[in-house]
Amino acid sequence: MRGREPEWAAILKLLGTAADTTANVVLVEGEPGMGKSLLLAEAATVAAARGTAVATGRADELGRLTPLGPLLSALEESPAPVAVTRSDFPDGPGLLMWLAERVRAALERRARPGPLLVTLDDLQWADPATLMALRTLPSRLASHPLAWLLARRTTSGGGDSGLLFDLLEQEGATRILLSPLDEETVSEVVADTLNAAPGEELAELAAQAGGDPSLLLALLTGLREENAVRVGSGVALLTGTALPRRLHAAVRRRLDEVSARTRHLLEATALLGRSFSPGYAAEMLGQPPAALLPSLEEALAAGVLVVASDKLAFRNELVWRSIVDTVPAPVRQALRQQIGQGPPARRLPRHQRADGAAADTLVLLSLLAWDEGRLARGLELAREAVELPGSGRHPQPRAVLTTMLTDLWLLDEAETVLAGAVEEAAGQPEWAAEIPVLRARLDLAAGRLGSAIEQAEAGLTAAGSLGVPVLVSSALSVLGTASLRAGDLPRAVRYLESDLARGVRDAPPYARLRSELTAGRISEARGGAASGMSSLSQVYDALPRHTGALTSDPTAAAWLVRVAMAVRDERRADAVVDAAEGIAWRNPRLPNPSVAAAHARGVRERDPDALVRAMTEHTDPWARASAAEDLGVLLGADAGARDLAVSSLNSALLCYGSVDAIRDAARVRGRLRALGERRRHWVRTDHPVSGWSSLTGTERAVCDLVAQGVTNRQAAEQMFISEHTVAFHLRQVFRKLGIRSRVELARLAVQESVRPDRRGAS
After folding, report:
1. 509 pLDDT above the threshold of 50
2. How far apart are CA 144 and CA 125, in angstroms?
3. Could you report the per-residue pLDDT of 715-728, keeping only the tens digit for each?
4. pLDDT, tens only, 430-476
5. Of the options 3.30.70, 1.10.10, 2.110.10, 1.20.120, the CATH number for the domain spanning 257-355
6. Locate the HTH luxR-type domain: which residues (predicted)?
7. What average pLDDT is seen over the chain?
8. How far is CA 360 from CA 116, 293, 490, in A?
9. Which residue, of 182, 276, 316, 375, has the fewest CB within 10 Å?
């Protein structure tokens, strides 16, 4: 326990008070190799020697499939872990409640004869059910002689286990951070292992372990095994320069925790030096920076890489050297030749490659965090990136930050960030093309539908000519959503079926899923819930790994639940609620995720209290209207709550009207008519007596639908009016245009759509 005296004292204090009924908790965390597992093992040994019962368990990556697996394995009588599969028990909350009760009862039973120490290691890989149980069990079992020793690996962003540790510490738990060993302690470990003080060269080599105890011991033991050190006059001297095989094996075990793709990336970038620019690494590998994002995040989470001031660096020099040494010589030679030459058309001077690298890295990490539902972390990283000099590559830090702020309806800050982006975009075509798309998203959030459509069309034209799938995807999402809300379903369908929409599949998940959500909304509006579900399978199936669709719209989770329930797919409805609540749990300081989760839960469980909360706490007026409409529908099913239902629907109608959501307002008026309430929805405007300009807004909507070949009944369903009313408006259209058939109407509609003053609306 060299260098861990203060930490070990805290452990001994825990063991000394294990018999007290105070639910003692000690939290141990640190980077990989810092000795967390050794500390827990030593604590278990000492506790057993003192007569304290011990239950030990650990989480692993595959164990995430088993709810409460670490706790169940720790508390079983037999040494083999219990295999729990969902197929053996009722699915859903019933299984988790059964398992949680089993864990609680086992803990009480094991602590009844005397004090019990529970040690759980590697909680960074624990399943959500285990983390939720550890959130409550220490306080629920405070009356029992129970001590808890919990350990996790620190990762970038903290993750769910980090949030658990924060909450337990706030409630009085002792927190221990195992830091790298200092220089003096490293020398003591060398002396302990080799029975001699290190010579100068050996001391320098030992320092390359970076204070990592596990790598240091692997190095020293390997050197001794291979006779690469000799002792003379009480000093240990190096006799060779090669790293020992035992160290290479230790590094390989650490790299085995990451995917093969990430390992290959580390092998390639190691040849760039101990630190490297992610942008140049992408150039060398012939990929866009965004393609490296998952591997970079994985390497950071595994503790292999760290963010330096302006680039990424290998955390540990021994790890870096080992990776370089174990790359086969022919491969190493080919990669070094490629580094020396670089892609001829794209290679930049070295000082330019370094400039902006840190911003690029932070942007990529922020997008990954956002896509995984770690919104607060994504927002933090994006704000940091904006403060650094940019590289000129896409995506731009200000664009990413503006999008995130808009999603969270922090519109004032989004406006400020966007204002600073306009000047920055000068002379950069991709960046300049993104400005109107960002403006369109802001206009849509603020309810300025006409401006949103105009800006998004400008951005779509530029993005299409530049061939940037991410911008095309964002522009089409805005155009489809704004057209749908404005009551122009034919326009929304045209965007959905345009040639540009086919290229959206090349966009990364965080952008593609937004487009797929919009496509699902349009399909549902066009053909009902079953049609919408056929377009949404990727959105549902991506949960909970990719949650970008849920964060792009405050009502997305509630709407996805509603569609799933309409086709009686309760499994997918529950998956959406779980994902939404997971986002809220990961972001306790952001109010919107919690409200969105309450809205989704209210729809799923038909809970009026949850819907009232959503109706009052949503910051987005359209989202408030949606929650009010859901509440009105729920109350409308109860004859005794008719007045409350009408009141909720009136609130929805008012909110939809405030953001010009014509189609949604029409739907609510239909719901009110079903309750015996009628609301006027027209305004008196002076029109010519004939020709296209004589048509009212409703008549134009009827024209658009009929010209597309839909029947009067289908048009009535789309417009939330009766079939008789559609027929009346159609007769008015025929009279004003001087025609007698639908064929003539379709021909005139096509002619009208290609007139110069109408092309922007086509």
Report:
1. yes
2. 27
3. 777 766 667 777 87
4. 778 889 999 999 999 988 888 999 999 888 888 777 777 778 888 88
5. 1.10.10
6. 688-753
7. 81
8. 49, 10, 40
9. 182
